[in-house]
């Protein structure tokens, strides 16, 4: 199964019992593979590992499930071998991802939380309870020089299974993450015996500039783990039904704009205005909207959807809070639409050239003042990740990379055009947002 044993037994607070840690690598030897990280990847080195938590109901034979997941993982890694590798630097200080058959592979922790029910983890409020179910809390992507680029924790619940994932964000974005997850699930469920759409691994086709960075492995100082999450923040999922989404979109487009606003633009403007209102900003206070936009179809030449790596860029638009609050919601939608549409191949290239001439390694919270920053996408078919025992009951983001104003969008489990909006905010702001009937689309 491409698996190396490393027994480890310990009790974690909250009665999550870590049973063991093993490593899984491609089922058949593939030799040594190297791939240079490019300008789209490098800014994320100082972010934390990107965490996702998938909660499944049922699955009573936990040992059988674990064996099936590991076996499928060994198969899918034959194509997605970069996730079984490590970060490295060449003699010039250019970062790359390297895999060879002597590396450990993907870290897989198995655990048991016999007193924890699926329903305990699917509530809309909070995320602190996820901590013990997720690997690599507070681990920087730069630590991929020493650690696996993918870590998994499979936890047996009273009535289900929790799958905690930590992906090194310097190696892949959301599109690549869910391409991998859906490919892995398809193999485990028996839908296919191999990866139906192989990842496109030639990153230098999108950008071929060698950027030298003088970055070294961070120390294992304990402050790393404490800085990943702001404990004063509150996180909550607001579930917008298909009907509510249609109402939001109709309201934003009521003025018959020259180009109709998309669902994403409409919902983003709705959230931006509501959060700005809840923050009680002054009219001259700046507020920033940030979206991490997929550039696969924007670059020249366009890259395939299967491009594996980061092919996203942060797009910023800034205005006064008074303008957001004093105008109809379509004002904000217009700013968002303009910013997204102007981010074409020329703009992307200019941004890359500016960064390459003076590289800046951002921190995860550098999204702007009074910001609303949207990551993930309702286009990602997260509820299609079925390993053979049904769709997830819930899909959530982990604790890493959260800051005041971070928003994750996921499709609603009910399907159709429903969307879940996961938001992290200061507690007083969240309290006001929870009572905002205009935001909640309540009469």
TrEMBL record:
It comes from the Eukaryota. It holds the Pfam family Transferase. InterPro entries: CAT-like_dom_sf, Sec_Metabolite_Acyltrans. Keywords: Acyltransferase, Transferase. GO terms for molecular function: acyltransferase activity. Belongs to the plant acyltransferase family. This is BAHD acyltransferase. It comes from Ocimum basilicum (Sweet basil). The gene is CAAT1.
């Amino acid at each position: 199964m491409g698996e190396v044993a490393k027994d480890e037994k310990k009790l974690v607070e909250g009665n999550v019992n870590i049973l063991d840690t093993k490593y899984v690598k491609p089922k058949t030897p593939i030799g040594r593979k190297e791939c240079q990280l490019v300008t789209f990847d490098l800014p994320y080195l100082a972010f934390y590992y990107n965490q996702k938590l998938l909660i499944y109901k049922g699955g009573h034979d936990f040992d059988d499930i674990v064996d099936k997941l590991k076996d499928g993982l060994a198969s899918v890694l034959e194509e997605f071998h970069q996730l079984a590798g490590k970060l490295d630097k060449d003699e010039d200080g250019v970062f790359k991802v390297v895999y060879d058959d002597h590396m450990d592979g993907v870290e897989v922790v198995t655990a048991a939380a016999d007193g924890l029910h699926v329903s305990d983890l699917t509530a809309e409020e909070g995320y602190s309870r996820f901590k013990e179910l997720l690997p690599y809390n507070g681990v920087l992507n730069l630590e991929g020089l020493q650690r696996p680029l993918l870590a998994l924790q499979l936890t047996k619940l009273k009535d289900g299974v929790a799958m905690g994932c930590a992906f090194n964000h310097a190696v892949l974005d959301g599109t690549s993450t869910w391409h991998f997850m859906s490919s892995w699930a398809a193999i485990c469920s028996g839908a296919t015996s191999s990866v139906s759409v192989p990842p496109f691994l030639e990153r230098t086709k999108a950008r071929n500039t060698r950027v030298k960075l003088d970055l070294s492995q961070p120390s294992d100082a304990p402050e790393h783990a404490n800085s990943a999450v702001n404990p004063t923040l509150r996180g909550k999922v607001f579930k917008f039904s298909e009907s509510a989404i249609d109402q939001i979109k109709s309201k934003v487009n009521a003025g018959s704009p020259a180009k109709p606003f998309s669902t994403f633009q409409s919902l983003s403007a709705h959230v931006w205005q509501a959060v700005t209102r809840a923050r009680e900003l002054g009219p001259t206070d700046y507020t920033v909207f940030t979206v991490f936009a997929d550039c696969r179809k924007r670059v020249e030449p366009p890259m395939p959807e299967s491009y594996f790596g980061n092919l996203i860029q942060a797009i910023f638009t800034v205005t006064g809070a008074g303008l957001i609050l004093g105008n109809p919601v379509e004002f904000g939608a217009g700013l968002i639409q303009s910013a997204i549409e102007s981010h074409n191949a020329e703009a992307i290239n200019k941004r890359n050239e500016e960064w390459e001439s003076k590289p800046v390694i951002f921190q995860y919270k550098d999204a702007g003042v009074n910001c609303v920053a949207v990551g993930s996408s309702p286009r990602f078919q997260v509820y299609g990740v079925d390993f053979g025992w049904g769709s997830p009951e819930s899909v959530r983001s982990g604790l890493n990379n959260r800051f005041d104003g971070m928003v994750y969008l996921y499709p609603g489990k009910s399907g159709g055009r429903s969307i879940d909006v996961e938001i992290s905010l200061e507690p007083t702001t969240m309290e006001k947002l929870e009572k905002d009937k205009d935001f909640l689309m309540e009469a």
